[in-house]
Design a protein that fits this description.
Nucleotidyltransferase, domain 5, 5-stranded mixed β-sheet, 17 strands
Length: about 400
């Protein structure tokens, strides 16, 4: 069985018990800092503990209300107003938890919201994951009978329905006598007092039929936490509801994994957008090159107004007689098209001299350096490139460039 940590919160002081299936491992008392120090010095792993915390029943309302067997959302929203008359303070300061239903009767536990927040905050700072937060009066509740729990300084009465009360022992004798006087069945009594108190003696002498078990006699464990650790009962209301719902540490891991998955999806989506944009850009470039190739063809062969298959037409046009073969001329055109597009120059006119086997280009650019770089780039590809006259007019540079396939 997995080891568990039981904590009892009483007026800012704690009692704690680490057990393994009811076998005590570590016990102590003090404040939250003392608990953290005890866990730090413990040989086990605190991160693996299942933690449960008990609040004081003396500051808690444990009651039942009547609701329809199939309550609507509007009826559930009205529950705070059904218990308002039983609450001494303001509803805004209270947290209401719902328990088990018996017919049209619903168990309700009302606690101080600030105490719940204080406990959960302190437990979180101590590195504890509190999966159960309940009331000490209810944890030893018996499903079949009313139970009286006596401690040295406090007494608890809890009925099988979950309705209960807790009060100081010095004030309990008369109240408990009245509270239990109408019981028709025997009352289970768990006495954890170190010495036999006046309350237990007076109750035993009353007409109330008690089934008494005592820590002094060894019939029960020496403390409420020890008894709870061996109890298989789980009738107590868990206050980890609504805004205080328990989020397992595994849930935090799943949240982290979801965030990582979201980041991965965003990265994949971004990469997809980049790929689509690149494809569109490459398609645009292909279209531009096709347009330039067609313009070049029409500049050389203006009589052909509807060229379709550019490669085939260039081959058929350049297959005629001359000093250069059709493949060499096609090489000139293919190398020229891409370089002119990349240089930023504008091709105004192009003449192909079949006899000489050269291309004459009339170019316009911003600077003469553009023309020089284009000539050098074409020369690096094995073409003979000669620059003719360069002139400057209206902020533009004009030049003639003659190209011929290398020998």
């Amino acid at each position: 069985m997995k080891q568990a940590l039981l904590i009892r919160f009483r007026a800012s002081q704690l009692e704690w018990l680490i057990h393994d299936g009811g076998r005590p491992i570590l016990e102590g008392q003090g404040d939250w800092q003392a608990l953290k120090e005890a866990l730090a010095g413990w040989s086990g792993n605190p991160d693996e503990l299942e933690a449960a915390v008990l609040m004081e029943g003396r500051s808690t309302l444990m009651t039942q209300i009547t609701v329809p067997s199939k309550p609507t959302r509007q009826i559930l929203d009205a529950i705070p107003f059904l218990v308002e008359e039983q609450i001494a303070g303001s509803l805004d300061d209270c947290f209401i938890s719902l328990g088990a239903r018996e017919g049209d009767r619903l168990a309700v536990v009302v606690v101080d919201r600030r105490v719940v927040e204080e406990i959960l905050l302190a437990a979180d700072e101590a590195g504890l994951a509190v999966s159960f937060l309940g009331v000490d009066t209810q944890v030893l509740q018996s499903k079949g009978a009313t139970r009286l729990v006596l401690e040295q300084d406090v007494a608890h009465v809890i009925r099988s329905s979950g309705v209960g009360l807790s009060l100081l022992s010095e004030h309990a004798e008369q109240v408990l006598g009245d509270e239990l006087s109408e019981e028709t069945e025997s009352v289970d009594c768990l006495d954890f007092c170190e010495t036999e108190g006046i309350l237990a003696t007076s109750l035993a002498a009353s007409s109330i039929e008690l089934n008494l078990q005592s820590a002094r006699a060894g019939t029960i464990e020496p403390s409420l936490l020890r008894q709870w650790s061996i109890s298989a009962q789980d009738h107590a209301v868990n206050l980890r509801q609504g805004e205080f719902s328990f989020k397992p540490r595994g849930g935090a891991l799943m949240t982290l994994l979801r965030r990582v998955a979201t980041v991965v999806l965003l990265l994949l989506g971004s990469q997809l957008v980049v790929n689509v944009a690149q494809a569109l850009y490459l398609d645009y470039q292909a279209h531009q090159l096709e347009t330039e190739a067609q313009a070049l063809y029409l500049a050389v062969f203006p009589q052909d107004r509807a060229p379709k298959d550019m490669a085939r037409r260039w081959r058929s046009r350049l297959a005629g007689p001359g000093d250069v073969s059709g493949s060499a001329a096609l090489e000139l055109v293919e190398k020229l098209s891409g370089r002119v597009s990349q240089s930023g120059l504008t091709l105004q006119n192009l003449n192909f001299n079949l006899a000489r086997g050269d291309l004459s280009l009339q170019l316009v650019g911003r600077t003469s350096d553009q023309i020089m770089r284009l000539s050098e780039a074409l020369g690096s590809e094995g073409l003979q490139s000669d620059i003719g006259t360069i002139s400057q007019e209206d902020g533009e540079v004009r030049a003639t460039l003659r190209l011929k396939a290398g020998q």
